[in-house]
Predict the 3D structure of the following.
Amino acid sequence: MMKKVFSRPKSLKKTPFHYCPGCGHSLLHRIIGEVIDEMDLQEKIIGIPPAGCAVLAYFYFDIDMGEASHGRAAALATGMKRAQPDKVVFTYQGDGDIAAIGTAETIHAAARGENFTTIFVNNGVYGMTGGQMAPTTILGQSTTTSPGGRKEKRDGFPINLSEMIAVAKGSAYIERTAVNSPANILKTKKAIAKAFRVQLAGQGFSLVEVLSPCPTNWKMESLEACKWIDEVMSAHFPLGVIKDITGDKKDAH
Amino acid sequence: MIEIDSELCKDCKLCASVCPHRLIESCDRMNQKGYYPAIFIEKHFKKEGRKCTGCGLCAIICPEIAIEVYRA
Amino acid sequence: MRGNHVVAEAAVRAGCRFYFGYPITPQNEVPEYMSERLSKIEGGVFIQAESEVASIHMVIGASMAGGRVMTSSSGPGISLKQEGISFLSALELPAIIVNMSRGGPGLGNIAPSQSDYFQATRGGGHGDYRNIVLAPNSCQELADLTYKAFDLADKYRTPVIILGDGMLGQMMEPVELPPEVQLKKLPHKDWTLTGAKGRPSRFLRSLILDPFEEEEHNWKLMRKYERITKEEIRWETYFADDAKLLVVAFGIAARIAKGAIKRMRDEGQKVGLIRPISLWPFPYKAIKELTKKVRHFFVFEMNMGQMIEDVKLALEGNGEVHFYGRPGGVILTPLEISRVISSYYYQKKLG
C-alpha cells in the first residue's frame, strides 16, 4: 500500500508558476508554502512581495499579501507588524529591492529590531527588467549593464548585505542558504522556519538570504546555473549562519 | 513511485540530475507549453531491478511542483 | 495651543494610533508631540523613520492593516513621499498627510509659503489620481479639519492632505478640541490584510498589467472622485454679499486678507472674500455663482500663482482676475495687503 509522501503545499494556490525553467523563485515559493503549512501559519501570515520577477507572488501564495513599491518592503513590514504584532509578517525581496533602493529601510528595520522576517532572494542580477547588474553581481560577471563583466573601477564592488545587517544590534538571526540542490533546499526550509520562530518569539529582525539560480539571465542551463552557485557564487557569498542570538539548535520539524 | 505532471514540467532537467537510480529522462514529445517534459522510466528497468525508492529528491528539486512521490 | 500640537492632538482624538514621521522644520513639533502622546496610549505606535520615504511606506503598511495612520512633513519631504501617495491612491488606502509648507523650491527656507498648492491638488505623484486637500486657516480649523480628515479618508478609502504652512504650525491660539473617538465604534473595514482567518486570502496591489483592467481601475477611481466632488466641497465667504471686488485666498493668506478686508470695510470699500477650504475638490461652482454679482476678483497667494489657475477655470472667462503673490515665505501684514487691494480697487474705479 503506497502512501503519498510529497505533494503541493496547501498554502500555495494551484496556479502554475510563470517563472523560467529552473528559477529559484519557484523553489522558494514552494519551500515557504511548506513552512507555512507545517507551522500552521496560513491564517496569521501576511507577505509583502517585491518589485521584481516575484511581483505577482500573490497569485501563488494563498495568504494575505500587500504590494510594496520597489525597495520599500521593510518600511511597509514595519508599519504592518507594529499595527498587528500578533501576526507573522515577511518580506520577499530580490537583490535590487533590498540591496540597492531598499538598503536604508532594511538597515533601519534591522537596527530598530523590527520583528519581521525578510527573505532575500539573491540571484546576482535584475531579472524582471532583463538582466542588468545588481548590487550582488560579482566582479567579472557579465550583465546587460556590465558588458564584459563587472569591473572594479567602473562598477565598484558587490555588496554582502547579510554581513552588513548582522552588525545592526536589532538583528537576531541571519543565515545565508541556497536552493541549488536538495540538501540546500532542505537547509533553506529549516532556516525560514527558524526565522519565523524567531519572529513568533519576538526576538528581533530575521533575514534569510537565499542564493538562487537565474538560468535565463546568467545564460546557462539549469544544471549549470546550480553548479555555478556552488563553484563561484558561494565563494563571494558564503553559506551558513551569519548571526544567531537565539542559541536555538532545534531542528525545524 | 513518482507521478510527473507533464503539463507543469519545463524540462529544466534538475530532477533527472538528482535521481540516484537514473529513472527520469526527457520525453521526446512536447507538452502544450512547448517543453519536452520529464518522464518516469522505471518500467523500462523492471528486469534490472532498478526501482524507485521514494527518496523524493526529484520532487524536492522540482521548481514546478510537478512531481508527487509515493512510498510503501 | 501651538498649531503643530493641535494637529497631533486632534489626530489622536480622531483615533489615530499610528504616526510615522521625520524631522523637518517647520513641523518638528508634530512628531515630537506624537512621540510623547502615542507612548501613553494602548496600541499607540510612533516611529521616527529614517526618511520621509520610509515613513510614507510605513503609513502604507499600517493602513493595509486597517489602522488610522498619519504622517507629516514640509515641502521637500512631501516631494519624497509622492511615490507613496500615488500608491496610497492606487491601492485605495486611507491615510492623512500633513504638509506644513515652507519656502521653495529646492531646500528653500523654513518660512511659511503656499507654493505646494499644485503638488497637493494635482495628485503630486505619477498617474491619474487626486487627493482630498483641506486648507485650514486657524488653529481651530487645524483641529476640526484634521479630525474630519480621518473620517473622510476611511469613508472614501483615499489619502487626505492637510495643507497648512509654517505660520499655522507655529502660531498659538485657543482651541476647542474635539471629543475622543471610540475605536471600537468605528465602521469595520472589510478589505484589510489581517491574516486569512475564517475568510479567503486577499491581496492589495496596484500592478494591473492588462490595459483594459487598468483602465477600469482608473475609471473606478474617477467615479470615486466624482462622488467626493459632489459631497465634500468646502468653502467660506466673508462680506461677499454686496462686494464689488472679491479677494480669493486660502489658508494663512486668507486669514491675512480677512484682516485687510475688515480695514477696508471700515473705510467704506465694498470688498469681500471667498475662501476655498477644500482645495480639492475645488469650489468651482461657488466661485462661478458669484460672477452673477461680481466682476472683479483679486487672487492673493503666498506663491507665484497656483490657485489662480483654478480661479480662472471657475470663472470660465466671466470677470477679471488680478493676481498678487509673495513667494519665498514673505508674510504681509493685513495693513500692507489692504493697501495693495485698495489701490487695485480704486484703479478699477470700484468706489
